[in-house]
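Input structure tokens:
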């Protein structure tokens, strides 16, 4: 067997809106870094390459979590950045690839929808039932809570309404 341990901090820094070109050797991952703001909507567009069949695209957020799971590297991937910081783009070959794969891509910011100000929500009491209604379609109600240390909580939705979504946002983003 064989493997490498890569230091993400050593990944090549890329500028937004610039074309990045590279060659992917068989079974080796290429790593790139870019800086984004919370709420940035970005597109990662493959410009040159042999289609989606030979490589995967993956994105890791500043906290080390996978923001975009391995996706065939073809066309355009669109995502919203949950927090500000340095993001890592990984270009990875398919396991059966035996030849080099030339590619180019571009990371572009297409807009920004800033996340909600977490200091403005209504304070929750753990285990208390909360009831309410939204003022209009697309409206948001924001609630906050604080724990005194590590604690496992369960969100128990008492509503069955497919038109509503719930999102948990913390200091490290969504």
């Amino acid at each position: 067997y064989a493997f490498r341990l890569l230091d993400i901090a050593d990944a090549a820094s890329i500028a937004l809106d610039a074309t990045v070109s590279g060659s992917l050797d068989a079974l080796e991952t290429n790593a790139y870094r870019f800086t984004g703001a919370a709420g940035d909507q970005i597109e990662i567009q493959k410009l040159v390459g042999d289609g989606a069949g030979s490589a995967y695209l993956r994105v890791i957020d500043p906290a080390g979590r996978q923001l975009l799971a391995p996706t065939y590297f073809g066309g355009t991937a669109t995502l919203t950045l949950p927090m500000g910081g340095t993001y890592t783009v990984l270009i990875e070959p398919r396991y059966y690839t035996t030849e080099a794969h030339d590619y180019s891509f571009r990371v572009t910011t297409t807009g920004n929808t800033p996340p909600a100000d977490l200091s403005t929500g209504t304070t929750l009491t753990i285990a208390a039932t909360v009831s309410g209604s939204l003022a209009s379609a697309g409206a948001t109600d924001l609630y906050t809570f604080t724990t005194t240390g590590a604690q496992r909580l369960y969100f128990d939705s008492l509503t069955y309404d497919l038109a509503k979504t719930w999102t948990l946002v913390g200091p490290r983003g969504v």
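The chain is about 0% helix and 40% strand. The chain has a mean pLDDT of 87.
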